[in-house]
Specification:
By secondary structure, the protein is α+β, with helices and mostly antiparallel strands. It contains nine helices and six strands; from the N terminus they run E-H-E-E-H-H-E-H-H-H-H-H-E-E-H.
Length: 211
């Protein structure tokens, strides 16, 4: 018996990065888990221009002066350290539009490569400090994840699926999702936030008991 696990996420969301790591630890502890995972778009900044913006300006506009930014990100840094996750926020110089990254995740899903692409996008942003709106960065990720680089290049140069990504983002907001990560378990139960590994282990065990 399988259970669909729909994940709503943005590859520039640090709690999505942390939440994924916590979930994956649970999946490793329960290798016979029932989940079939699909990633869905949620853009933290749906109105971000295609060229993105300076990271420092973005953070100051969102959180205020530098000490407020540090305070806002301290729980993120602590959680990443606790999970053993590499995180180098100082390398991130620009806050990108994630529309094209979400398009790539969508196309990867058609080829069964979503997890590899999502992992690579998180690493590119949070570890390498790369601009994940840059098409060369996205093409390198696509190729390394087993996708056809030439095909993805043609798609990125077009508007393919852009309206679909925006519509899906707007739809899930209209349904009440106001932050990510968000999880829909078995198309029935909604869970918000980067819950600890123990939570997911319990969910898997509960599902097994109901099977």
């Amino acid at each position: 018996m399988t259970t669909k696990l729909d994940i709503f996420s943005d590859p520039i969301c640090p709690w999505c990065y942390i939440g994924k790591a916590r979930l994956e630890k649970a999946l490793e502890q329960r290798p016979d888990h029932p989940f079939i995972i699909e990633w869905h778009p949620y853009m933290l900044n749906p109105t971000m221009p295609p060229e993105g913006m300076d990271r420092r300006e973005y953070l100051q506009a969102k959180f205020g002066p530098p000490d407020a930014v540090v305070k806002a990100y301290l729980p993120v840094s602590e959680a990443a350290t606790e999970e053993g996750l590499p995180l180098d926020l100082a390398k991130i110089l620009r806050t990108p539009s994630t529309l094209d990254a979400h398009r790539l995740i969508h196309w990867a899903g058609l080829e069964g490569r979503q997890n590899a692409v999502v992992n690579a996008l998180f690493k590119a942003n949070f570890v390498q400090g790369l601009d994940i709106s840059d098409h060369t960065v996205l093409l390198d990720i696509a190729e390394a994840s087993g996708l056809d680089r030439t095909l993805i290049a043609r798609l990125l140069d077009s508007d393919a699926d852009s309206d679909d990504i925006r519509a899906r983002d707007a739809d899930i907001r209209a349904r009440g999702l106001s932050g990510v990560p968000g999880f829909l378990i078995g198309r029935t139960y909604v869970v918000n936030g980067a819950h600890p590994t123990e939570f997911w282990v319990q969910v898997i065990d509960d599902l097994a008991a109901q099977a």
